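Notes from the 1:1 (GR / supervisor)

We went over the backlog. Supervisor wanted to see one worked example end to end before approving the batch request, so GR pasted a single chain during the call. The sequence is below; no edits were made to it. Supervisor asked that the structure be written out right there so they could see what the output format looks like.
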Amino acid sequence: MLAPFAFHLNDTWSVILLMAPNAGLPPASFPFLPALLMAALVNLLCRPSIHQSIEITLLFLLFYFTPPLLSVGTYFVAFHAWRHLFRLSALRDQLTPLQPLDRWIHSLLRLLLLSIPLTLASLAFLRWIPPFLASSFPKGQNWVGPYLVLLAVLTLPHAILVGWVDKMAKKRQI
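Structure output shown during the call:
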């Protein structure tokens, strides 16, 4: 998440101010681009492959050419979520990258089918957050910041669930 700061510091800081209005002035822009490049280099050194290189290049282009909120949202929908789906498919059906494409497609479709009820419930819930927040704040006060804070809070259960899945996968391997 360094990319929005590295490529669009002022726009990103505007979003930060929606969540934390007393955050003050934006930090110096200097450390973000070198830190981003270092993170990308470490990532490529740890997992060298053409796929990883393509993904990092696409992410750099996405974050460079789009505003922060759009790029972060697109990242989570187009990269992060799909990475989890592939990972869960691999764990659930014990797939390897060398398996035929039709096995991966079949596994992903089953996983997507099983996730439909929770996805619909989540979408219904998300649909009601903006009106609730808008009615909870005085006229003219921005509810986008608290909405983003709420989404950030949801990362804790997400991290716990991912950790639990990893733990269960390791137990199965032993």
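Supervisor's comment: The radius of gyration is 19 Å.
Batch request approved.
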